[in-house]
Design goal:
- It is a single chain.
- With about 425 residues, the protein is an all-beta fold.
- The longest helix has 5 residues.
- The strands form seven sheets. The protein has a five-stranded mixed sheet with strand order 1-22-21-20-19, with no helix packed on it.
- The termini are far apart.
- The radius of gyration is 21 Å and the shape is globular.
- It contains one helix and 29 strands.
- Among the domains are: about 110 residues, no CATH class; about 180 residues, no CATH class.
Length: about 425
């Protein structure tokens, strides 16, 4: 394997007032969202599992958002909210579905992922602790189980399709009512596709299962949720992958056809391989600009440096972004989320004992009109102080309201599942 190496380059802009880890400015919170910029689910308890772990912008309902998380330490929930942070009472009458209420037979203490299909159904993967099997539930847009799915009960047991071998399914996406999963089968990476009827897509891989090592020998992982690249009639499944050589891990962005073949016209025979040391957290697609934004960190000599690079839809470095090179940030940490919105790159990251929001121009320079003069600012609690803490690599941008919503928890007298709204109006 011959990785296509990314060339490194420091950002051309160095924050002017950075003198130490306590010197950053505060990012603005949009106090018109929910309760002074914070949406809370339930009451605080002394349990760190109390948190929102995923935000999903609905494509079916404009300016509505789904949240998944855990309350009371053992009660996984899904909520639907309106644009200003109020619970949407057209969803299960309260805006909330506690997943422990879906079944009295199974023991659901957490769930892995959620996605929305083209008809507004919500798909949820949950692990039943009594058997260790992964279940896929399908909820109607009103929050009730779709009893036409599965054996007229609203769910299917995914392990059934693998003869109960050692299977782990991670995250998934939907495309025209197909459900595309990343996972591992007997410790080898796979993609798995189900139809909206809950049966394997026969035209994908072998009976719906694609063993990724058949395409990329020695591949160790397919990570995160697949994403769909769409330009006209061209549709590709984009994933990020990882394998290990003798001294380090190599991360890559791969493009596959809907039948499960590598798109040989994408990058280097279907995969863009990053330089050793680059650790991809995730990536986002923008079909309008035809750009892939890759974010995470560079690990070198015990230090993590936040990084971003961008590819065009052919898998080549986007030349307008820092001349096609990686952009590094001069404070130790990593970018948890980054997306293109309103002609800018917007995201946030984790930095030792705090979280910071950032905005870049599309040429790779920090946008110093955001939290001037830096282009970034702290929006979380610092250290062990009371306040908001980001819980996962999950966020979304509300372009019309100019907000960055970040999932996490707020710690005061206890831990409360929480979403915070960072204002992007500057």
């Amino acid at each position: 394997m011959h990785p296509n190496m990314v060339f490194f380059a420091q950002t051309q802009h160095t924050p002017r007032d950075y003198q130490g880890e306590r010197q950053e400015l505060k990012a603005p919170i949009d106090v018109t969202y929910a309760d002074k910029g914070h949406l809370h689910i339930g009451e605080p308890i002394a349990d760190p599992r109390n948190a929102v772990s995923q935000i999903l912008a609905s494509n079916y309902y404009p300016e509505r958002f789904y949240l998944r998380g855990v309350h009371n330490g053992t009660k996984p929930f899904i909520a639907r909210t309106l644009k200003d942070g109020e619970l949407d009472t057209s969803f299960n009458k309260t805006g909330l579905v506690y997943l422990t209420d879906l079944s009295t037979v199974f023991d659901y203490h957490s769930f892995s992922h959620m996605a929305e299909d083209a008809e507004g159904h919500i798909l949820l993967t949950m692990i039943d602790r009594t058997q260790g099997f992964t279940h896929l539930w399908k909820l109607k847009p009103n929050g009730k189980p779709d009893t036409d799915f599965g054996s007229n009960n609203g769910y299917i047991i995914l392990n059934n399709f693998f003869n109960f071998k050692d299977i782990t399914l991670y995250q998934f996406t939907t495309y025209k009512n197909d459900y595309i999963f990343s996972g591992s089968l007997e410790n080898a990476p796979i993609l798995f596709v189900l139809t909206h009827e809950g049966v394997p897509r026969q035209s994908f891989g072998k009976l719906g299962i694609l063993k990724m090592q058949d395409l990329i020998p020695d591949l160790r992982y397919v990570i995160g949720a697949p994403k769909m690249l769409e330009v006209g009639e061209k549709v590709r499944i984009i994933i990020y992958t990882r394998y290990f050589n003798d001294s380090s891990s190599i991360n890559g962005i791969a493009a596959l056809t809907l039948s499960g073949a590598l798109d040989q016209r994408f990058a280097d025979n279907g995969v863009y391989w990053s330089k050793p040391g680059i650790i991809i957290y995730d990536f986002t697609l923008n079909n309008a600009s035809q750009r892939i934004t890759v974010h995470g960190q560079v690990w070198s000599e015990g230090t993590s440096t936040p990084m971003i690079y961008r590819l065009d839809y052919t898998g080549k470095p986007a030349k307008e972004f820092n001349e096609g090179r990686v952009v590094l940030f001069p404070i130790e940490g990593g970018w948890d989320y980054m997306t293109e919105a309103d002609g800018k790159l917007v995201g946030y990251g984790s930095f030792l004992d705090r979280g910071m929001a950032v905005r870049y121009r599309l040429d790779g320079q920090l946008d110093t009109t955001f939290v001037p003069p830096n282009g970034y600012g702290v929006f979380t609690a610092i250290g062990s102080q009371p306040g908001f803490y980001g819980n996962s690599h999950s966020a979304t941008v509300m372009p019309e309201s100019q907000r960055l919503l970040v999932a996490g928890r707020e710690i005061q007298t206890g831990s409360t599942p929480c979403v915070i709204a960072v204002s992007l109006k500057q």
